Amino acid sequence: MLDIAVLLCCILMYVLNAAGVFILDSSKILLLTLAILPFSAFSFIIGTLLKIEKAWVKYMIILDECAIILMAYSVLSMHVIMILVLPLLKASLYFNKKVTVITYVVSSAMLLIGHIASVYFSIVFDDPVIVSLPASLIYGFLPRFCQLTLVFLFLIFIARNSAKMQSDGYVYAEKTKRLMESTRTNHYEIVKNLATISENKSADNGGHIQRVFKYMQILAKRDGAYDETAYNIGLAAMLHDVGKLAISETILSKPARLTEEEFAEVKKHAAYGKALLSGSDNEIIKLAAVIADEHHERWDGKGYHGLKGDEINKYSCMMSVVDVFDALASRRCYKEPWDIDSVYKEIVGGRGTQFSPVTVDMFCESFDEFMDVYREYKDT
Q: Distance of CA 213 to CAs 162, 240, 323, Å?
């Protein structure tokens, strides 16, 4: 970009000079423009168009920019003093310390050569007091060389400290990552163990909670949740039946059809689950309490508590589909597993009545992923 900027400035200067705004040597400005043109084209083609990321490219671009500055300084002298440090800035920002040192050496050499050339070729006065080459070197080159050196030392200091800060940041990030992974594992184990205790009260449940964990993540991601959020939703879903801890094991494991009284008792597990999980400030547990309470609600309002439509939390709607899918597709003490085609038709057939239409649509879109989980955990 520096190459293009200098080229455009030269073209603008030539135009303004031709229009009489400046009183300069047009032939020298034209010669400078034509000399800079191939260098600018090289950097633009290699760096911008082709985007070649080889090691030699960065050195060529830096040398290319230093050459442009040399030519510009030879003709325009002190009027381009500000751009002398730009190659150094680029080297320190985008490359490494070695390239920055090399750029400083090359820039210093270009500054010296350019300053000598400016005494003979400059189209503007540098300093009317300086009338000889030695005086120009002492009063012109040395102050600018000191400025360049000061900028170089400042950039090296920043680069060194930035590298240390970056290294410390990596170490801190790694520690934070390990801590988060450890916390995540602990959350999973705690939730899994609690859910397993409630699951074990019902015979033949197998890997229900692991499958629910996976199924809910699939639907949550389909709904737009990020991986971490979907993971936490899956954790919350694992506790959907925790209220069964308060239900008699005899009823839960009964291999025959339940009586009305027994079914009424089983239905209480939703409210029991909400009561067991309420009172926590943890977002996962708070969501788990909602899912536990609402996962037997129906879209048409004929569920346990009579909630309907958008009154039901969307994750409870997802849990309803997941729970029915897994229950029908798995063996239970009171039934054999359904074939998958029949399970699929049952879910789709409940769209808008038993299940949320949006959730059923997401289920259909994600059915292949459901089947992957089903096959993976089928025998657990």
A: 43, 11, 11
Q: Sign of the C-alpha dihedral, residues 241, 321, 282, 277?
A: negative
- Contact predicate 206/331, CB 8 Å: yes
Q: What is the rounded CA–CA span in Å between residue 377 and residue 356?
A: 26
Which of helix, strand or coil describes residue 122? coil
Measured CA to CA, the distance from residue 46 to residue 229 in angstroms comes to 43
- Name the packing angle between helices 357-365 and 340-349 (round to 10°): 150
Q: Is 355 helix (H, G, I), strand (E, B) or coil?
A: strand
Residues designated catalytic: 244
**209: closest CA among 19, 49, 83, 380?**
380
Higher pLDDT residue, 198 or 142?
142
The CA–CA distances, whole Å, from 52 to 46, 99, 100, 177 equal: 6, 17, 20, 34
Is the separation of the CB atoms in 308 and 319 below 8 Å?
no
Q: 342 or 108, which is more confident?
A: 342
Q: 253-301 pLDDT, tens per residue?
A: 787 888 888 888 989 999 998 998 888 888 888 999 999 999 999 999 9
Helix (H, G, I), strand (E, B) or coil at 170: helix
Give the model's pLDDT for residue 129: 46
Is residue 346 within 8 Å of 377, Cβ to Cβ? no
**Torsion-angle region of residue 337: left (phi > 0), alpha (psi -120 to 50) or beta?**
beta
pLDDT at 341: 94
Residue among 354, 284, 355, 348 at smallest CA distance from 318: 355
Q: What would the DSSP string read from start to end of 321-347?
A: HHHHHHHHHS-BTTBPPPPHHHHHHHH
> Which amino acid, one-letter code, is at 64?
D
DSSP 270-298: HHHHHHHHTT---HHHHHHHHHHHHTT--
For 341, phi then psi, to 5°, come to -60, -40
Single pTM value for the model: 0.56
